[in-house]
Amino acid sequence: MHLHSKTPLSHSEPGTDEHAIIRRLSAVSIVGNTLLSAFKLFAGIAGHSGAMLSDAIHSLSDVLTTIIAFVGTRLSSKEADQEHPYGHERFECMASLILGIILAITSVEIGKPGVQNILSGHYQTLAVPSAIALAAAALSILSKEAMYWYTLHYAKLLHSTAFLADAWHHRSDALSSIGSLFGIAGAMLGFPILDSVASVVICLFILKVAYDIIKDAAAKLLDTSCGAEYERKLSDYIASQDDVVGIDLLHSRMFGSKTYIDVAIRVDGSLPLWEAHAIGERIHCGVEQEFPEVKHIVVHLNPTE
Predict the structure, then answer these.
(1) Under a CB-based contact definition with an 8 Å cutoff, are residues 267 and 229 in contact?
(2) Residue 1 falls within a domain, yes or no?
(3) Is residue 2 in a domain?
(4) Is residue 183's pLDDT more than 90?
């Protein structure tokens, strides 16, 4: 006997409030990054800082990634239809994957000029940054860290992998600005090569974040299981329910920001069909209530003596 979810849970069930949050998150990120990028670009040029110019390019890329996150989240919130009976949650995974790739490309572009300057060996000919570049780095750290916590809060509230990726993009920008701050300060103190070293350090920080985002998005696109610990908690919950004699099989898989479950439970084989069905229905409803990330669960009933 199989029991299927009667009504798939929509990613947009909270209604217009969720869409309002998504619009607000996107607007804050786009406007904030545009203004910050313009100031850092000016500071990098006026202050003769390669690290700050790289930082400005990084912030500018945030505008594009936020637009991608916005589009991906809105598409994933669409109701299931005839062509997509399981919903559209994987659009968000695709958005996260694109974000990660853009982040990786950005990090390479940031690090390339720094590596070239370091390998050239002509350190004394490098321009020394001025105070405006240092001020821009400090402002960037504060603003980007604030944007990280703001976006992270709502990404968790929405269970949105795309906006979680966007939050980490803000954090990576804050980390790159810390590298810029130290590099610019060191160059101003008589070590001009440190400005280039900062660009390389920024590259490594961002590459790590890009790798994590791409890995997570790929796992959710490939029907990866939710892990042994998650399945253990789910199994313990189901096994503790009345009339469940045992569990023969339990599989989980990630589907975008949601989870699909297949479980086979043993029940008394002498029970009438309607009683056995009621047990399965109770398990089905209980799991969806106790584990809200579960979008769809199939309960198979095996008879036992």
Answers:
(1) no
(2) no
(3) no
(4) no
Q: How far apart are CA 132 and CA 12, in angstroms?
A: 45
Q: How far is CA 82 from CA 63, 86, 87, 92, 121, in A?
A: 34, 9, 10, 19, 63
Average pLDDT, the chain: 81
Q: Are residues 203 and 103 in the same domain?
A: yes
Going by the DSSP 8-state scheme, the letter that residue 127 receives in this structure is P
How far is Cα of residue 95 from the mean position of the Cα atoms in its chain? 9
Q: Domain limits at 181?
A: 12-221
Is residue 69 within 8 Å of residue 163, measured between CB atoms? yes
216 token code pair? 């997570």
* Whether the Cβ atoms of residue 209 and residue 169 lie closer than 8 Å to each other: yes
Q: Compute and round to an integer the Cα radius of gyration of the chain.
A: 25
Name the 3-class secondary structure at 134: helix
pTM of the predicted protein model: 0.60
pLDDT tens track for 9-36: 344 444 447 778 878 887 888 888 889 9
Picking from 216, 230, 203, the residue whose alpha carbon sits closest to that of residue 106 is 203
Domain boundary among 193, 221, 249: 221
Distance in angstroms (rounded) separating the CA atoms of residues 99 and 210: 8
In a domain, 5, yes or no: no
CA distance 73 to 244: 38
* Sequence-distant (≥ 6) Cβ neighbours of residue 142 within 8 angstroms: none
Per-residue pLDDT tens over the stretch 76-116 = 667 767 776 666 667 777 877 887 888 888 778 878 888 88
Where a domain ends, among 201, 221, 241? 221
